[in-house]
Amino acid sequence: LRKTKLVLLCDVSGSMDLYSRFLLQFLYALQNCFARVETFVFSTRLSRVTDQLRRRPYMVALRRLSSGVDDWSGGTRIGDSLTAFSSEWPRLVDRRTIVVVVSDGWDAGEPATLAAALAAIRERAGRVVWLNPLLGSPTYRPETRGMAAALPHLDVFAPVHNLASLRALARHLVL
């Protein structure tokens, strides 16, 4: 846990409203358990929120996040956000980094942009994990343009819809 670096990228767009608070509580816990964690949220733009999640009561952090992120509950540009991450924060990812994307995959952007951004991240990272809250439903199929573009570039595609799915994730957070 001390050697592994985590980069957490969480979708806070409108389609993720039902899950955002639950998932941010999980990200808050990771932020305060792992030695090296960087946390970002995105909707149409990427925002670094590492400092807001560090050493604060969760409810204070959540209030600051939801009021401080301009595009909270907005549209979704996953590919553009991941591209911004790669270009603005390239030194955060190396072979000892696990990049975790938390999103339902509903992307209004171009699938090629998302695929290229994930390919670039995958090239540098030790592992790329995509957590999708919809994957917990037995009828869900990852057939949206965004998910179809993302899947070939992932090491792990897993559900994140309840506590059991969070427990199962633990084995993927160690390199």
Structure characterization notes:
It is a single chain. The chain is α/β, with parallel strands linked by helices. It contains seven helices and six strands, in the order βαββαααβαβαβα. The chain has helices spanning 17-33, 50-53, 58-68, 78-88, 111-124, 145-150, 163-169, and strands at 5-11, 36-42, 46-48, 97-102, 127-132, 156-159. The radius of gyration is 15 Å and the shape is globular.
Q: What is the compact description of this entry?
A:
With 175 residues, this protein is α/β, with parallel strands linked by helices. Helix content is 40%, strand content 19%. It starts with a strand and ends in a 6-residue tail after the last helix.
